[in-house]
Design brief:
The complex is a heterodimer of chains A (about 675) and B (about 400). With about 675 residues, chain A is an alpha+beta fold. Helices cover about 40% and strands about 20% of the residues of chain A. In chain A, a hairpin with a 6-residue loop joins strand 18 and strand 19. The radius of gyration of chain B is 23 Å and the shape is globular. Classes of the chains: A alpha+beta (about 675), B mainly alpha (about 400).
């Protein structure tokens, strides 16, 4: 009892006492009686008329009050049932309808010949109606049967991400034993059933993992983005629901809108307890479209195996060989025939949600980023593979002439004197002797390109080198139809000045040495493999670079034809003098057939003439990155194959093997000397 | 039969007209005299309301498990018996029984609290169990309160001149009121409004009435305010407070009573102009609308029959109530006048409270809709009230 109650109590008692005293003993002669009985009413003295009139007036007021009440009720009724009917109707429909969603199978991903790279496989899935969550004994039995903690099972039963009435997925890919047990004991597990559903399958396991990518549960950002796209009325925007499986990388992400099917919807009417009363409209799930890629499984397989074997061999020779990439492009239309990276991963690990331990392993820095598509996202110094472009630049801007010749003594300085503070070396420290442009490319003589770099520094076109590189598409996205492409970097004076903000003005200024560096693809220059391959496409094509792409088309649902085809387009056309091209082509022919007998030995076994360029780009913190890019057939180039391997001795003894193997796969003439065949 | 009619004719017919000897004309006369004892302007809407009640409960019983259609009809039958008894009886005779009525009113109000009689179950307030019978004594109690207040007020011949008499009237109402309030707030409100309207019509001075209303408002405000403040005794239970706040702030709550209110508004609103039709009132029949056959029966009705049906229902109520007012104006007996006023106040307030609650303009209380809500106690008492109104007509003084 608190004080306030006592006070209120006392007040009430006092009030009642006062009232009683007043009524009983108040200014009145007679005592209190309920019934005034036979005595004449006090007011009887007056005229009956006046009282009747008074009561009549009060009754009129009463009827006005009643009229007011009914008017209020009718007004409210009209406002609810006539004016706001639609709103309430919607609310009522929301109350009683509920939607059950079924996932549609995603489209398959096929190679150019229709071979399945990513498919769907039936998966035996144990599902349960939501009511099972209340049955503790059944949950315990199920947990024992499926081999998972009952708490985890309970969480799955409470998962409403696919709709409140949807069947809950308890376990995917269950064994036949469990299916048999459930079938034999139907009374033990009411509400639990086994369904055949589809899951992503990878018949070739890790093949083209970086191209096809992987799937995963839709993220909150993707949900928000899809909602925004729909709100803005974007055509073809997909409405995602949480729990949907969507593409998260590679083609799965890039062509999500084609691959994603239309989810099945079953409209049901429910009562207040969520019990399904009847079924309304049905939208059957519609499988996504099959996507046909430009990849050729045969070439892709060789590319991957060769890359792996080569790296294994390089490792045996004592180099770290952290990773590598290979790409094969049809330079006549931009189709990517093969694209492989090392290290790689198995996309199947992402099916049904990736385990935390798997994810940690894949994202561990020690694993060298197996999820990264190095061929398009990895930015590296180009090294000597840039030299054909530097030559074009030198010839075009008149820094070098077709008959120019330089003398390589194994070292080089700005003034040509040993006394210079900076002495730059040719990779061949014994010296190449007299060198012209084709020889410079063939033997990859650095001195030739130091001279070209110096020439540009001293000429009017100080940034002619960069201009040429950019003309060939370096420093910009190639526009390949794969996510997370990197742009690389072509350094120039302005970039250097802005980039090294904290350095002294002297250090920030562009110097002749910088020019020499980029002329041999070193210094601050960064390129991606696909950029370099595209630049070589231009050389091979004598001008045109077709946008590289992996999509051939979307397959029609019936038959094997394509309903929509990728339309190849030329993104860049580089004009060069024909005799410059001949000159440089001769240099690149020399790389394959003249530079060294051991190099040539690999190509002797191929009856198609391939021209190319090796590269060995030094990089900070370890061994160089080895490059090789080649194209062929020399008379009418069709294929450009490029590769790089990180942390090796040189390109000629690593990346070149991979390129040779890929050409071997294209022409059916394997290299007997390749690490793959050993 | 013939004898009955003959006796009635002898008793009530104008003696001069009895001289007419033509047989067919005599039969017509008898018929006319028989209907002369029924106040049709009030009886017809009441019977139509009962017809609507039968239809509504039939539709409700088809889809809901709780209501028993036959029980509903049985309640009506019992009510009809009660009405017939009141109709035959000259209710004016109650006017001298103030003390007895007072004791009876208090007894009926306090009955659920009497040990051995009270019956409690989930969601049932103020029930009494007598052998096999379970009923709500406050329902017949309301009739006693009407008689009590009418008889107390009628003593002053339509004009109260002394404040002491006014206080006496108020105190007379206050006692049964204070007894029912802790048991059933809703019935307490009905009694308060009914009694207050009778007192207002009884000729009390306007200033006294205004002062009383101000006092009441102050007390209610105090009760509400202290119930929300910590450190004070909470007279209103938390659920009662919640109902009050729900009504004032319907969107922002997820409690049960808020849910009930929302669902009831959806049921009413989604009915539209012509309603969804019998058997298509999903709000009620799929269980979204709680208490669809009792407190929220208007939601069930309005969902199925729409605006047209709801207007019909309200107009029937209005017709019945205005007919009663008109009878009150005609009746010469002051006591019966006040009884009729009490009936008017009771019906009007119950319709306002119940229908208003279903549409979210009144707080949620467990007040049944007269004639329509499921529940025999309420049905019997309400039909008995019809009999009382009819009695006022039948036992009117007739000029020769």
């Amino acid at each position: 009892m608190d004080v306030s109650l006592i006070i209120i109590g006392i007040c009430i008692v006092l009030a009642i006492a006062l009232l009683v005293i007043y009524v009983r003993f108040g200014r009145s002669e007679e005592p209190f009686r309920f019934d005034i009985g036979e005595r004449a009413p006090q007011a009887s003295g007056g005229k009956d008329d006046s009282n009747d009139k008074g009561i009549f007036k009060r009754l009129v007021s009463l009827s006005l009050g009643v009229a007011g009440v009914f008017a209020t009720l009718l007004a409210r009724l009209a406002s609810m049932q006539l004016l706001s009917e639609e709103d309430y109707h919607k609310l009522a429909e929301n109350n009683r309808t509920s939607t059950i969603y079924t996932q549609a199978p995603r489209g398959r991903i096929l190679d150019r010949n229709g071979i399945e790279i990513v498919g769907n496989r039936p998966s035996l899935t144990v599902v349960a109606i939501p009511d099972v969550v209340d049955k503790d004994i059944e949950i315990q039995l199920l947990a024992n049967l499926l081999g998972m903690p009952s708490q985890a099972l309970r969480r799955k039963l409470q998962d409403t991400s696919l709709g409140h009435q949807s069947l809950r997925v308890l376990s995917v890919d269950v064994s036949r034993r469990i299916v048999a047990y459930l079938g034999e004991h139907p009374g033990m597990f009411p509400g639990v059933s086994v369904q055949e559903r589809t899951q992503r399958s990878y018949p070739h396991h890790e093949l083209a993992a970086h191209v096809v990518g992987y799937t995963g549960t839709v993220t909150q950002e993707q949900l928000d983005a899809s909602k925004k796209a729909i709100d803005e009325g974007e055509v073809g925007a997909i409405e995602y629901r949480s729990g949907d499986v969507v593409g998260q990388a590679g083609v799965e992400l890039q062509y999500e809108s084609s691959l994603q099917g239309v989810r099945g919807e079953q409209l049901v009417h429910v009562d207040a307890h969520g019990k399904i009363l009847d079924f309304a409209g049905v939208v059957d799930p519609e499988a996504g479209s099959d996507v046909v890629l430009t990849l050729d499984t045969t070439i892709q397989k060789v590319a991957e195996e060769s890359l792996r074997k080569t790296i294994e061999q390089v490792r045996k020779e004592g180099y770290v060989a952290t990773g590598g990439s290979v790409i094969a492009i049809d330079c006549t239309n931009g189709e990517i025939l093969a694209l492989a990276n090392y290290p790689t991963y198995a996309p199947s690990r992402f099916v049904g949600g990736i385990a935390a331990s798997d994810w940690d392993a894949l994202t561990d820095p020690k694993a060298q980023w197996p999820l990264m598509n190095r061929a398009i996202s990895g930015q590296y110094p180009s090294g000597s593979v840039i030299k054909p472009l530097s030559s074009f630049a030198g010839l075009n801007f008149g820094v070098a002439q077709t008959d120019s010749s330089w003398y390589c003594s194994g070292w080089w300085s700005w003034s040509g004197k040993r006394s210079d503070s900076v002495i730059m070396k040719c990779w061949y420290e014994a010296g190449h002797g007299a060198m012209n442009i084709p020889d410079g490319i063939t033997f990859s003589c650095d001195v030739v390109f130091y001279e070209i770099g110096k020439g540009f520094f001293n000429s009017e076109n100080k940034e002619g080198l960069q201009e040429t590189f950019r003309q060939y598409g370096l420093g910009a996205l190639t526009g390949v139809d794969l996510p997370s492409e990197a742009a690389g970097r072509i350094p120039d004076a302005q970039w250097k000045w802005n980039y090294f903000k904290d350095a002294s003005d002297e250090a920030r200024a562009w110097k002749g040495g910088d020019n020499c560096n980029i002329a041999i693809g070193q210094g601050d220059m960064l390129v991606t493999l696909i950029q370099m391959a595209c630049a070589y496409c231009s050389i091979a094509n004598k001008g045109a670079i077709w946008r590289p792409h992996v999509l051939k088309g979307i397959r029609s649902r019936l038959g094997t034809g394509l309903v929509s085809e990728y339309k190849p387009e030329v993104t860049i056309t580089v004009e060069e003098e024909d005799y410059f091209r001949t000159l440089i082509d001769r240099g690149m022919q020399g790389v394959v057939y003249r530079e060294s007998p051991s190099q040539t030995a690999h190509w002797k076994s191929l009856n198609v003439e391939i021209h190319g360029k090796t590269g060995t780009a030094e990089q900070p913190g370890g061994d160089p990155i080895g490059w090789f890019i080649g194209f062929g057939p020399a008379e009418a180039p069709r294929y450009v194959v490029g590769s790089h391997v990180d942390r090796v001795l040189q390109g000629a003894s690593s990346a070149m093997y991979v390129v040779r193997d890929v050409f071997g796969a294209i022409y059916g003439q394997p290299d007997p000397l390749s690490p793959m065949t050993k | 039969m013939e004898a009955t009619l003959r006796r009635q004719t002898l008793q009530f017919a104008n003696p001069r007209k009895r001289l007419v000897t033509d047989a067919s004309s005599r039969h017509a006369q008898l018929k006319k005299k028989y209907f002369d004892n029924l106040y049709l302007p009030q009886l017809i809407p009441a019977l139509l309301l009962l017809l609507l009640s039968v239809i509504t409960m039939w539709t409700a019983a088809r889809v809901l498990t709780t209501p028993n259609f036959l029980m509903h009809l049985a309640g009506m039958a019992l009510g009809a018996v009660g009405a017939w008894m009141f109709w035959r009886y000259d209710c004016r005779r109650f006017s001298n029984l103030v003390l007895i009525l007072f004791v009876a009113s208090c007894l009926f109000m306090i009955m659920p609290k009497i040990p051995g009689l009270g019956y409690e179950a989930k969601g049932m307030v103020g029930w009494v169990k007598l052998g096999f019978f379970r009923f709500q004594p406050s329902e017949p109690g309301k009739i006693f309160v009407i008689f009590l207040m009418a008889s107390a007020a009628a003593q002053y011949n339509g004009k109260i001149e002394r404040f002491r008499d006014y206080c006496k009237l108020c105190a007379t109402l206050f006692v049964p009121l204070i007894m029912i309030l802790p048991i059933d707030l809703g019935t307490g409100l009905i009694i308060l409004v009914t009694g207050a309207v009778i007192i207002m019509c009884s000729g009390a001075k306007r200033s006294w009435i205004i002062a009383t209303i101000l006092l009441l408002v102050t007390v209610v405000a105090l009760v509400v305010i202290t119930s929300t403040l910590d450190g004070f005794y909470h007279i209103l239970k938390p659920y009662q407070m919640k109902r009050l706040t729900n009504f004032l702030n319907p969107e922002g709550d997820v409690t049960e009573s808020g849910y009930n209110l929302r669902q009831s508004k959806i049921a009413v609103g989604s009915g539209g102009l012509f309603g969804k039709g019998i058997g298509f009132g999903y709000q009620a029949q799929s269980g979204f609308l709680p208490e669809a056959h009792t407190d929220f029966i208007f939601g069930l009705y309005a969902e199925q029959f729409g605006f047209v049906g709801s207007v019909l229902l309200l107009l029937l109520f209005a017709w019945m109530i205005f007919a009663t007012i008109s009878l009150a104006m005609k009746t010469e007996n002051l006591f019966m006048k006040f009884v009729l006023v009490g009936c008017v106040a009771l019906w009007t307030f119950q319709v306002l409270q119940n229908v208003g609650m279903c549409m979210g303009i009144m707080p949620i209380t467990g007040i049944p809709l007269p004639f329509l809500s499921y529940g025999s106690s309420s049905m019997i008492s309400q039909i008995a009230l019809i009999g009382i109104v009819q009695s006022a007509w039948r036992h009117r003084p007739r000029t020769a």
